[in-house]
Amino acid sequence: MAKETDEQTADKLKAELAKMDEWFAPLPPDMQWFEAQVEAEHKRLAAKKRREWALFCILAAAILGAGIAAAAENPVYFLCIQVAGVLALPLALLYEKRKKAGGPNDTGR
Question: Which of 65, 61, 85, 83 shows the shortest CA–CA distance to 73?
């Protein structure tokens, strides 16, 4: 009995949804709007890529410069920089993991 009622309810729901589709035909999204959204996202990603490469180059130059200066001045300084780098890696990975998980202040971007 319950199975028949479920089937009847499903059939009635499908019929009513078909009526709604006839009354309010679903419209495809405006192609110009869609293309504008794709273009905006492409520009945003390109700008983000440029910022990341610039930051990478600046940090690489700073790290290499500090390493060369430390090695030339005193090998103990070079060892300190190596230890700091080894300690910074897990912290950076933990930060990225939390950022991807979406902390309480995450805006979704």
Answer: 65
- d(C-alpha 69, C-alpha 22), whole Å: 75
DSSP conformation class of 74: -
How many CB atoms within 10 Å of residue 9?
A: 10
Low-confidence ranges of the chain (pLDDT < 70): 1-2, 103-109
Q: Is residue 81 within 8 Å of residue 70, measured between CB atoms?
A: yes
What pTM, to 2 d.p., does this model score?
0.45
- What distance in Å separates the CA atoms of residue 25 and residue 94, rounded to the nearest whole number? 49
- Dig out the tokens for 23 from the structure: 């009354």
* CA atoms 83, 85, 89, 92: torsion sign: positive
């180059």: which residue's tokens? Answer: 57
Nearest to 59 by CA among 49, 71, 48, 67: 67
